[in-house]
From TrEMBL:
It is an enzyme of class 2 (transferase). GO terms for molecular function: glutathione transferase activity. It comes from the Eukaryota. The keyword Transport does not apply. SUPFAM superfamilies: GST C-terminal domain-like, Thioredoxin-like. It catalyses: RX + glutathione = an S-substituted glutathione + a halide anion + H(+). Belongs to the GST superfamily. Tau family. It comes from Salix purpurea (Purple osier willow). The lineage of its organism: Eukaryota, Viridiplantae, Streptophyta, Embryophyta, Tracheophyta. Its EC number is 2.5.1.18. This is Glutathione S-transferase. Residues 3-82 form the GST N-terminal domain. It is found in: Cytoplasm, Cytosol. InterPro entries: Glutathione-S-Trfase_C-like, Glutathione-S-Trfase_C_sf, Glutathione_S-Trfase, Glutathione_S-Trfase_N, GST_C_Tau, Omega/Tau-like, Thioredoxin-like_sf. Transmembrane segments: none annotated.
């Protein structure tokens, strides 16, 4: 039997949940290794020497870093319950919203959670505008970004809800 993949993570890291969700949606058994980010393990430093951050996905002894790159990798290796559409144009659209989540969605929301006073009013407004953009142009009348089933853009944005849930 092939060795289970391993996920180096920390359950307080929102980025790690993207990988957990992808693995769960595809019903892939894996081993979770909890990292102490205040005292990083030799395993983390070995497998993510560039950023030294979680998540790191270990497939055999091959490490993959960066949450959304890991999600795409998992989708390519385990094609059941696909997270990216087959159609090239729809794939481009899904990647557009993943990039939007990375560049704009999560940074705007998290700035709001850590701001106070006047800055909070400004970041609240930015967050409302960002969410309105997602509603109008990303999801529209659909259930998920890609239509009727959860896809890669939903996974990218999902951590916004996690953050909300933590506050
Ligand atoms: N862009 C990365 C971000 C990962 C990240 O920021 N991970 C944090 C935990 S939330 C981390 O490992 N921080 C440790 C550090 O900065 O030293 C991804 O999407 O995987």
């Amino acid at each position: 039997m092939a060795e289970q993949p391993k996920l180096l993570g920390a359950l307080r890291s929102p980025f790690v949940y993207r990988v957990i969700w992808a693995l769960k949606l595809k019903a892939i058994p894996y081993e979770f290794i909890e990292e102490d980010l205040t005292n990083k393990s030799p395993l983390l430093l070995k497998y993510n020497p560039v950023h030294k951050k979680v998540p790191v996905f270990l497939h055999g002894d091959k490490p993959v870093c960066e949450s959304m790159i890991i999600v795409e990798y998992i989708d390519e290796v385990w094609p059941q319950n696909p997270l990216l559409p087959k159609d090239p144009y729809e794939r481009a659209q899904a990647r557009f919203w993943v990039k939007f989540a990375e560049d704009k969605g999560t940074p705007v929301l998290w700035r709001m959670f850590s701001s106070k006073g006047e800055e909070l009013e400004k970041t609240k407004k930015e967050t409302q505008e960002m969410l309105q953009t997602v509603e109008e142009h990303g999801i529209g009348e659909k259930k998920f970004f890609g239509g009727e089933s959860i896809g890669i853009a939903d996974i990218a944005f999902g951590i916004c809800c996690l953050r909300v849930g933590n506050h």
